Amino acid sequence: MALTFEHDTLGQRVLFGSGQAAQLLADEVGRLGSKKVMLIAATYEAEIAAKVAAKITPAVIFDDVVQHVPIEKAEAARAVALAEGIDLLVCVGGGSTTGLAKAIAMTTGIPIVAVPTTYAGSEATPVWGLTEAARKTTGIDIKVLPTTVIYDASLTYSLPTELSVASGMNALAHCVDSLWAPKADPINGAFAVEGIRALAEGLPLVVADANSEEGREKTLYGAYLSALSFGSAGSGMHHKICHVLGGTYNMPHAQTHATVLPYVLAFNAPAAPEAERRIAQAFGTATALEGLQNLRAQLDAPRALKDYGFSESDIAEAVTIALPIIPANNPRPVSSENLTALLAAAWAGDDPTALR
Ligand code: NAD
User: What is the CB neighbour count within 10 angstroms for residue 31?
Assistant: First the structure.
């Protein structure tokens, strides 16, 4: 079959070096000629942010970060950036912190230098997310893609093991979902497969030793590739379901992705043989689901949506909201019945093989 595709390669500077964030950031602030930096980091991330910003003098330190970026928080942060004449946003933290910087960039055009401390991957995508009246909206705007990303694996040592696993599974979900997402192509597919391989190697090392430099570096590298694949391929069925669960039921992002992934994989894989083959190959297992489930067992990954605040009585409403936004080109047709079965199984933590 002829190879025909359309792929946008996005321009972003990526600096990767353990223990080097402070110097890399100071050099980058100088290179960009910034005079007024707004340092964004949640209160929980303040200590890490102080280390990262040790060689610069921020004009503003902003810590009012809330998961899923409520619109009123975004507007307050935008007002501060404009009032202070900020010319560079530096965000240090997880996806929520990067998300707030993106919300500011979206309306002001101020560039971002992102220093991620989880494996969420938001720093490498042009995707923004905002939550208004309990509905999460996402969109694409090149203005929100950070100009530079600084990856320093030593900043992730403090990420608790449970959260490291959930966040790493979130990255794995970017890879898996991008193999059948609306704009899947051979280039984002290549990133996805290498991302799965790196995450499957790195995460067990992190679980064995939270301070494993090799484990943290491999996982962070895999998280970056996962974000490249997701940012390019777009949101597939898995991400659409998780956006509804996060935005409407305020569920924790990484744990929700970690829980839902095996169910979407079990559901879609029989109808997506090429994705199935490539995921299995990346894991080195006979089937994709076997590889994922082996890894999940090894990591003691999150199992059931009921453990994260989702009620059985919410399933019907969640199906109604998610069904219309699931991409029409999903490999397997999605109906109210089979989506209800998928969410019921994920709620209970049942064996996903029943969905095949
Ligand atoms: P998060 O940013 O909410 O962080 C989770 C928790 O970990 C927070 O309490 C945070 O303070 C803490 N934390 C972060 N780094 C730490 C560290 N190194 N040590 C100790 N604690 C640390 O969660 P997340 O999973 O990173 O991001 C989730 C958000 O990112 C969601 O809103 C999601 O929609 C968004 N996201 C967006 C994209 C995109 O492309 N736009 C991609 C992925 C995720």
Answer: 11
Which ligand 1 atom sits closest to the C-alpha of 160?
A: 20
**Would you state the pLDDT for residue 133?**
85
Reduce the DSSP state of residue 14 to 3 states and report it.
strand
Count CB atoms within 10 A of the CB of residue 19. Answer: 11
Q: Is the dihedral of CA 55, 58, 61, 62 positive or negative?
A: negative
Q: What's residue 1's pLDDT?
A: 63
Closest residue by Cα to residue 274 from 168, 192, 201, 174:
192
Q: For the residues of 145-193, what is the DSSP string, one character each? A: S-SEEEE-GGGGTTS-HHHHHHHHHHHHHHHHHHTTSTT--HHHHHHHH
Residues of the chain with pLDDT under 70: 1
Residue-wise burial string across 327-355, b where 16 or more C-beta atoms lie within 10 A, e elsewhere? beebbbebeeeebbbbbebbbebeebeeb
Please tell me whether the overall predicted TM-score, pTM, comes out greater than 0.90 for this model: yes
Sign of CA dihedral 18, 21, 23, 24: positive
Largest CA distance in the chain: 58
Q: How far apart are CA 293 and CA 146, in angstroms?
A: 34
CA-proximal residue: ligand 1, atom 20 (nearest): 159
What's the one-letter identity of residue 241? I
Residue of 143, 253, 256 best suited for mutating to test ligand 1, as the one with most atoms within 8 Å of CB: 253
